[in-house]
Structure formats: C-alpha cells, structure tokens
C-alpha cells in the first residue's frame, strides 16, 4: 500500500531544500554585459529585483510580459535586472544576440544581462528560469520565490507573490516568509 503525504507537508520541504542565497544574505557583486552594450551590476540605492531568464523556456515566454510590467510598475523604486546564464554551447538560441531580439521584441524596460561563465548564477543559487530574487536597499535578500500563482495564464492569477513582497518592502513592512518557489525550466549548465 502506497502512502501519500499531503501537499502542505511537502511544500516546506521543497522550500527548505532550495539551494543558494537565504533570506537576509547579501546580493553577490557582479558586472555583466547587457543587451544594450553596457555592463551592469547590483549598484543602486533602491531595492533590487533580479530574475533569471531564458530565450526559449516556455515558463519565461509565458511570463516575460508580466515581468516587464512589474519593471514598469516599480520603475524608479525598484531596480530590475534580468540575467540569462544558459549555456550557448548546448543551447545556441541563448546567445547575447538572441537575447537582444527577445529584449527588443518584448520592449524590456530593464537591463538584460548574459552570465556566460555562469559564476554569478551559481553565486545566487538560481535553479530555474524564471527565478526571482528581491533585495532591500541594503542589498539583503528579502524574497526568493515565484512571481504569481499562474505561470501559464495571466488571466488566472489570484496571488501576486512578488508584487506583495515588493509592496511590503516599499511600505517598510515585513515581507512574508511564506515564499512559494518558482517553477520553470532548469538552467542549462556547462
């Protein structure tokens, strides 16, 4: 006889096993090339949201307009950086040139960066695309989880987890520690 654990019992185990940065830890320092021809890093005096992206992942393709809308909504209050670390050796369409096409086609209002050596992505402990990391103005991690509860269909979103965390942070309120993990495609490591 097979026994199944209730979902509410399994979710904390999944969150507890998520590798990488833990709440309260500092943002890794970095300087990466962007689709705009400039180098970008985490410097700034406002909160920072870093999202790991892909040019091909269906999860990213389904949410990239929402990610751009988030960047537009919080412009001037939260700095947004997108990072693509996927290996171009095995996934040629993850190149900086293809990233430029994606950023232009979507009208990204945030810098989109390439982590070719994957060292920054490893420092964050990102595991999928998209994977969201929100830092306060002191660059301490306050949120790591999903954007919302319906990656596939924006019309079915009922919980906007990233926005709730951002609104709490900007209002000077505590960010909930209930942070459902992101779902997405695995990062294509070298």
From TrEMBL:
Residue ranges of domain Thioredoxin in the record: 21-171
One GO MF term attached to the UniProt entry: oxidoreductase activity
Designated name of the protein: Thioredoxin family protein
């Amino acid at each position: 006889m097979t026994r199944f654990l209730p979902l509410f019992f399994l979710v904390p185990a999944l969150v507890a096993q998520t590798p990488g940065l833990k709440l309260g830890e500092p943002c890794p320092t970095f300087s990466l090339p962007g689709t705009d021809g400039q180098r970008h890093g985490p410097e700034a005096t406002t909160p920072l949201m870093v999202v790991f992206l892909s040019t091909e992942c269906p999860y990213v393709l389904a949410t990239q307009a929402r990610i751009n809308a988030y960047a537009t909504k919080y412009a001037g209050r939260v700095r947004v950086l997108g990072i693509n670390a996927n290996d171009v050796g095995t996934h040629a369409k993850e190149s900086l040139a293809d990233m430029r096409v994606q950023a232009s086609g979507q009208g990204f209002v945030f810098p989109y960066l390439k982590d070719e050596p994957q060292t920054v992505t490893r420092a964050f402990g990102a595991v999928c695309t998209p994977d969201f990391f929100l830092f306060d103005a002191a660059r301490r991690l306050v949120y790591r989880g999903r954007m919302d509860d319906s990656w596939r269909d924006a019309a079915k979103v009922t919980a906007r987890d990233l926005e709730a965390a951002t609104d709490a942070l900007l209002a000077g309120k505590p960010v909930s520690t209930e942070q459902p993990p992101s779902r997405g495609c695995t990062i294509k490591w070298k």
